[in-house]
Amino acid sequence: MADSPMLQIxxxxxxxxxxxxxxxxxxxxxxxxxxxxxxxxxxxxxxLAGVLAGRPGFxxxxxxxLFEGAELAALxxxxxxxxxxxxxxxxxxxxxxxxxxxxxxxxxNAIREQRGQEPLDAMDFLExxxxxxxxxxxxxxxxxxxxxxxxxxxxxxRNEVLQMxxxxxxxxxxxxxxxxxxxxxxxxxxxxxxxxxxxxxxxxVITHYQRLLDxxxxxxxHVLSEGRIxxxxxxxxxxxxxxxxxxxxxIAPGESGDSSEASAGSGAQP
Amino acid sequence: xxxxxxxxxxxxxxCEAAAQHTPPALRAxxxxxxAVFAAQGLPGVQxxxxxxxxxxxxxxxxxxxxxxxxxxxxxxxxPIPNSICEVPAAFRDMARPLAASAPxxxxxxxxxxEHPFAAxxxxxxxxxxxxxxxxxxxxxxxxxxxxxxxxxxxxxxxxIEAEPGSRAVVVQEHPAPGAAEHFCNxxxxxxxxxxxxxxxxxxxxxxxLLVCNLAVRQERDxxxxxxxxxxxGPFVRNDLSLSLAGSGASxxxxxxxxxxxxxxxxxxxxxxxxxxxxxxxxxxxxxGGSARGVxxxxxxxxxxxxQSDAQQSNPNLLLADSAEMDSKPQLEIHxxxxxxxxxxxMGRLDDEALFYLQSRxxxxxxxxxxxxxxxxxxxxxxLPASLGPILPNFSAQLRECIESALAAEAAQ
Lengths: 270, 412
Ligand SMILES: Nc1ncnc2c1ncn2[C@@H]1O[C@H](COP(=O)(O)OP(=O)(O)OP(=O)(O)O)[C@@H](O)[C@H]1O
Ligand SMILES: [Mg+2]
Description:
The complex is a heterodimer of chains A (about 270) and B (about 400).
Chain A: E1 7-16, E2 19-29, E3 34-38, H1 45-53, E4 59-67, E5 70-71, H2 77-83, E6 85-88, E7 95-99, H3 100-114, H4 122-135, H5 141-144, E8 146-147, H6 153-167, E9 171-175, H7 183-196, E10 202-206, H8 210-215, E11 220-225, E12 228-233, H9 236-244
Parallel strand pairs in A: 3-10, 3-11, 6-9, 9-10
Antiparallel strand pairs in A: 1-2, 1-4, 4-5, 7-8, 11-12
Helix pairs in contact in A: 6-7
Chain B: H1 3-19, H2 27-40, H3 56-66, E1 95-97, H4 98-101, H5 116-123, E2 129-133, E3 143-146, E4 152-154, E5 157-162, E6 167-174, E7 182-192, E8 197-204, E9 209-218, E10 223-231, E11 235-244, E12 250-259, E13 263-272, E14 278-287, E15 292-301, E16 308-318, E17 324-333, E18 338-347, H6 351-358, H7 364-381, H8 391-411
Parallel strand pairs in B: 2-5, 3-6, 4-7, 5-7, 6-8, 7-9, 8-10, 9-11, 10-12, 11-13, 12-14, 13-15, 14-16, 15-17, 16-18
Antiparallel strand pairs in B: 1-2
Helix pairs in contact in B: 1-2, 1-3, 2-5, 6-7, 7-8
The complex binds adenosine-5'-triphosphate and magnesium ion.
């Protein structure tokens, strides 16, 4: 299994209620790789991220979804998290009445338990959290506030990256973690994310802006449109998209979801 | 005779038996209670105040727990225990038996005609606890009144006079009596002198029937905070009445009830009798399973009580379709320069928040429990810090109660 992909997506079709959103996604991600997904609003990027993380409300109609060779669809969201999948949310929820500190420790200990590690007590956790918070330049008072409650947009994104650094996932999916960030914050968070890059880990970065990809340099860039990957390329594709927009792609009208007439390839590895 | 009438007859026989042992100092109060109970009996759902709370479980209790005792020969019956709680040694100098002191305050704050169970409590009166907190004294630690988990019927009666400028934290703790049939009918009267400050905590974690009356009268510039914390129970009825009888008095009335079955009924009444008083009511309910909750909050602002500031809020979390909550404010405003607000809400666990927690590795039940604790946490945070030594225990029980109930629900 050594060089089989960490994540394998085959002809994936998914819907939310009546809405067919993903219409045949093919994507392989190997350990050590960074993939970027771009694409117009409403094309299905967050849906794909949600389907990977196990968000309720999406139904997989057909296709395959394998993480380290195991069927993902059968796993509850918490099981996926414990297996090493992490989603940095585009819109993180807030949890009134639960302090960030308490939540993060409970979460880390749930993951540690799965890895066969001892739970961290409050002191040890604080020590670790301090390190990671420094990495994302997060003010420490955010730890004693309720999770994301009243956090600014940028503070929420910092909190997402902080969680990623604490949980050390094998596959991290960042859904527009750059949106709403000022330029300094973007750099800091990108550095935080890069700190986690390594041969055993993979990243799936969803973004609208090439700028993020200057910091987190991807190995592959894919364009998602109407639920399909219509174009894949290297990091230079992001520059091209930044210049030309999406109009030049002859995107097939998505009536018949599984037709493969899209102009620019299927999105498998180049 | 129907069940209720038979139960009333049994209870009345007990009252009459008790009367034979009533100390002389309490006889007048006992007589008055007995007369009202004889005339009115147990409240029925036709009464507005009891609309949502059928007292059938109490009638059933009386029929099964009192029937085989000697109601046929009431004179021979043992007196009903008044469940005088043990007062911790540090506070003994302030405590006296009611039967010895018979303070004027006894019966002065609760109108037995309006509170049928206060009438029953008086009718069974044998003794009770009288506490007098001397002027200016600040209690160094919380005064913990642990009511005994007696089997059968218990009838606690507590009268507290907090003299001007005193400061105290009092905990009235109703422990779970175990599986035994139990009906506790408690009445507490509290008088706060000018500038006095008191936190009063009602800790209720029962599997018995519980009726609690707490009536408070506040003089000028005094501050009172109640914390009614209820964990389950087949039948819990709380009547909390506060009279803001001196200008500048303020109160907070906090409540948290968590139940996965049974009936939890909180009735509050706050009377803004004088100008410039403030009242804050925050009652939170978490109801799952077949639990039924009731909140009824009455705010009255009397003519002339200008610059009254009254807020009431009753957010609820319903964890199951089968759980039910009735919430009803009742405002009677007879002054014009006042600020009054009220609101109630019925929410469910936020699916987004649940998914968020699960996506971070927390199991579905742990995630639900965390959200419930988050919702409830504010009420625990409002407790005075000096409760530290008592609270971890309660807080652990709270977590346990939430987690086991959620697990049981999930397993269904
Ligand atoms: N639960 C749902 N029910 C119905 N339609 C949905 C649901 N969730 C998503 N959609 C629709 O699916 C489409 C894809 O949504 P998605 O959030 O995946 O887009 P996106 O590519 O992330 O867009 P953006 O760039 O704006 O974040 C949208 O048209 C959206 O309205
Ligand atoms: Mg999106």
